[in-house]
Each structure stands twice: as structure tokens, then as C-alpha cells.
Amino acid sequence: MPRIVTLAGDGIGPEVMEQAERVLRALPLELELDPRPFGGGAIKTLGAALPDETLAAAKSADAVLLAAIGLPEFDGKPVRPEQGLLKIRQELGVYANLRPAKAGAIDLLIVRELIGGIYFGKHGRHPDGRAYDTLEYSADEIERVARTAFELARTRRHKLLSVDKANVLETSRLWREVVTELGKEYRDVALSHMYVDNCALQIVLDATQFDVLLTENMMGDILSDEVAGFCGGLGLAASASIGAAGTPGIFEPVHGSAPDIAGKGLANPAAMLLTTSLLLAYGLGEHAWAAKLDAAVAHALTVVQTPDQGGTASTADVGDAVLAALGL
Ligand code: NAD
Ligand code: IPM
Ligand code: MN
């Protein structure tokens, strides 16, 4: 029976995870849910954001469903919940973070490199007080995520835009070389390149021009929140973090722990439920149930809206509507 490690985390994490668990338990699928401590709560109770037992359970799971981590009380502290998130991504080798966005005529997919770049470079302070974060990429790190993006473009509209800062950064110049070379294997995919600043502008001007966007870790983090703003906000933005075939993926909404609304039952669980659909499809191969869950969430959003969508419904109301739409 497939085992899904669930990491509810902090803030609104447990609130939206509860709705995902309700849906997964209601589906007529044999699944084991294996909840584990993770994030700021785990630092407080167990001394680590990613306890060893949690990591071991995740590594041996069929898929990992992760809600959100982060608590304001750890701001400025040396040990932070975010370190656990970066570590589990690195340990599971999930190098490609797929962030789909749909709204009206917009239908795009950001493929964000997830376990390299400035997030994983050297960080520190020099004796004179200067701070540094180093940005490095190897050709292999670029090629594997680019291959994922080309393959996904083939399942869509055959357009791939690689986003970089090659007018300034050496890592971006390598990025462009590697992606261009790999493009020769994918002649059926129309490859183009754009600087990230112009891309940020083009998203605002007309996001319908994009199919698949491929970019490095930090640029992808920023652009995906921007895109989410055009597609109903972070309450709707889902993502899948995947690595080599046969290894468990991490399925995680784009949003964080939203401390400003945590504990009030106001969080929109749609992003988490659409993420659950990505888990069903990419993690378990249950494509039919993934499509049904997507449709149920879309329908539920026409009936009930949390405050981020302009309504007054609660987190659980949306979960109820999704279960009703699924007929479960
Ligand atoms: P955030 O994504 O938590 O919130 C940004 C804004 O979006 C807030 O106004 C919030 O209320 C709103 N929002 C987010 N999710 C929502 C939802 N499901 N329903 C309704 N509104 C929602 O980003 P932030 O405030 O910059 O960060 C808060 C904490 O979360 C920080 O500690 C940060 O490091 C962490 N974080 C974690 C993840 C993750 O776990 N994957 C992602 C991003 C940020
Ligand atoms: C995200 C988040 C994380 C990231 C943080 C919390 C480390 O913003 O998942 O988008 O930057 O990857
Ligand atoms: Mn982010």
C-alpha cells in the first residue's frame, strides 16, 4: 500500500493539511498516511526542523505531502524552520519544482531549479562584517532540470522559455549554453531566452504568451509568487518537487505558513488540495483521481470562497464543498 508522509508544519500548514487528509482518506484508494513532525514546531519539541526520523520516513515513502513551515519567532535565530525545508528538498534530490498556473487564457508552468544555486552556496560573514552568499551551478545541475522542462514542454504547447540574467551573471551564461545545447535534442520544442527583469515585466503585461518557463532557484521563487498573483493568489498555487525516477517527490503548495491569518480558519485550502492532486498524478500515477480532484476544487471555488477569494467561507467549508463535489 503506498505510504504518504504528511508534513503539516507551522502556521496555516496544519489547517490546510487537515483538508488534504480528509480528501485522501475519503478517496477509494488504499493509502497509508504517515504524519511526521517538521518545521518550527519540531525545533521546539525535538530540537530540529527536520528530525532524523522524519527524514528517514520521507526517504522511504512513496510521496511526501508538505503544507508549510515558518514562524516569526525564529526570525533572526541561527536555527530556522526554513533550513528543514531546504534540507528535505536536498536529501530527497528533488531538483525540479513544477509550479503550474492557470487563469482565464493564462496556462503556464514554471520549472524552477530547486536544490542548487544561491540557496545552497556558501553563506557567511567575513571578519570585517561583510556578508556573502555564493551562487554556483554545474552543467549537470542545469542539464537535469532543463531536461525535465523540455520533456514537460513536449506534453504541452512545445514552447520553452529559459529565464536568466546572462547579461550579468556567469552562472546564467553557463545556464544559457547548457540549455541551448540540450535544445538540439528537442528540435520540436521552440526554445527562447529572456532576462529575468524583462520576464517579470512580461508576466505583468501578458502572461498568456508563456507555456513552460525554466529558471534557476531564486528567480523561480520570485517569479512564481508573481505569477500566482495573476492566477487567484497564493491560496490557489500548487507545486510538485520531483527528482530522479523512482524517488519520492515532495508535493508542496507555493505559499508559506501565513502567520497573519494562522489559527483563524481563514486559510484557503485550495492550493493544498490542488497540490494533493499533483501528488495523486505525479506521485502515485492516479491520473483519473487527480483530474476529478482538480475539477472538484474548481467547482467548490464557484460555491464557497475564503476571504482571499473575496468570500467569508472557512477553510473547512471549502473542504466540505470539495468532498461534496467529489461525491464522497
Ligand atoms: P506566505 O506565503 O506565508 O504569505 C504571503 C501572503 O499570502 C500573506 O498575506 C498570507 O496571508 C497569504 N496567504 C498565503 N497562503 C494563503 C492561503 N492558503 N490562503 C489565504 N491566504 C494565504 O509568505 P510570507 O508571509 O512571506 O512568509 C511567512 C512564513 O512562511 C515565513 O516564515 C516564510 O519563510 C515561510 N514560507 C514557507 C514556505 C513553505 O513552507 N513552502 C513558502 C513560503 C514562505
Ligand atoms: C517556497 C519558499 C521557500 C523557498 C522558503 C521558505 C525557503 O519561499 O517554497 O517558495 O524559497 O524555496
Ligand atoms: Mn517562495
- Domains (count): 2
Rough outline: globular
Strand order of the largest sheet: 2-1-3-12-11-4-5-10-8-9
Helix-strand sequence:
EHEHHEHEEEEHEHEHEHEEHHH
**What percent of the residues sit in helical stretches (DSSP H or I)?**
40-55%
How many angstroms does the end-to-end distance come to?
Answer: 21 Å
Query: Could you say which small molecules are bound to this protein?
Result: nicotinamide-adenine-dinucleotide, 3-isopropylmalic acid, manganese (II) ion
| CATH fold node name of the largest domain | Isopropylmalate Dehydrogenase
SS strand fraction: 15-25%
Quaternary state of this entry equals single chain
Residue windows where pLDDT falls under 50 for at least 5 positions: none
At CATH level 2, the architecture of the largest domain is 3-Layer(aba) Sandwich
Number of DSSP E strands: 12
Number of helices: 11
Radius of gyration, taken over Cα atoms and rounded to an integer in Å: 19 Å
CATH class of the largest domain: Alpha Beta
Q: What's the overall average pLDDT, rounded?
A: 98
Major pleated sheet:
10 strands, mixed
What is the SS-derived class? Answer: alpha/beta
| The CATH superfamily title of the largest domain | Isopropylmalate Dehydrogenase
Briefly, what is this?
It contains 11 helices and 12 strands.
